[in-house]
Design goal:
Elements (H helix, E strand, L loop, with lengths): L6 H8 L2 E3 L3 H28 L3 H22 L7 E3 L3 E3 L5 E3 L3 E11 L2 E11 L6 E5 L7 H19 L1
Antiparallel strand pairs: 1-2, 2-3, 3-4, 5-6, 6-7
Length: 164
């Protein structure tokens, strides 16, 4: 039994859903990585003058600066969708569209350490020759795991419902 929906509601449901970077998450990340990077750089400068172990700290500081640059780069792309979920499949920022028929496994991974969130990823295993697996870090996106999985469910069911 089909549920009635107005034409406006139906058109909105069929339109692809775009996910953007969250301004608040990126600003918080920029502030956090700025402070942590400055501290790591200061520690590495002091440690390099005392021993060769300071170079390890310098490598860690470089990684933190790389994370800072990622947050700043995200702030410059707030109006560009990062992930688009539609009836065709999932479109990634590099232009790769993985169709619903090509998706073997679709997972939203949420990692934390002692209750502190450390990473969120969308991981897709495909039937394609290349790429076999596609992953995207979605920590700073304005979406929840429930929202992502619900949209993927809705669009993939529509795809398989039309095919059968």
């Amino acid at each position: 039994m089909e549920i009635y929906r107005s034409p406006k509601s139906k058109a909105k449901a069929e339109k692809p859903h775009e996910f953007y970077y969250s301004r608040n998450k990126l600003i918080a990340g920029t502030l956090l990585w700025s402070v942590v990077s400055m501290g790591a750089i200061a520690l590495s400068v002091v440690a390099i003058s005392k021993s060769n172990a300071g170079w390890l700290m310098a490598a860690i500081a470089a990684t933190m600066v790389w994370m800072l640059i990622g947050c700043i780069r995200g702030l410059t792309n707030l109006n560009t969708p990062v992930l688009v979920i539609g009836s065709d499949g999932i479109l990634f920022p590099d232009g790769l569209l993985i169709g619903w028929g090509d998706i073997e496994e679709n997972t939203y991974l949420s990692q934390s350490y002692m209750g502190i969130p450390t990473g969120r990823y969308v991981s897709i295993k495909t039937r394609l020759k290349k790429p076999k697996r596609k992953a995207l870090r979605v920590f700073a996106l304005d979406m929840t795991s429930d929202e992502y999985l619900e949209l993927c469910d809705r669009y993939s069911q529509r795809f398989y419902g039309e095919e059968a």
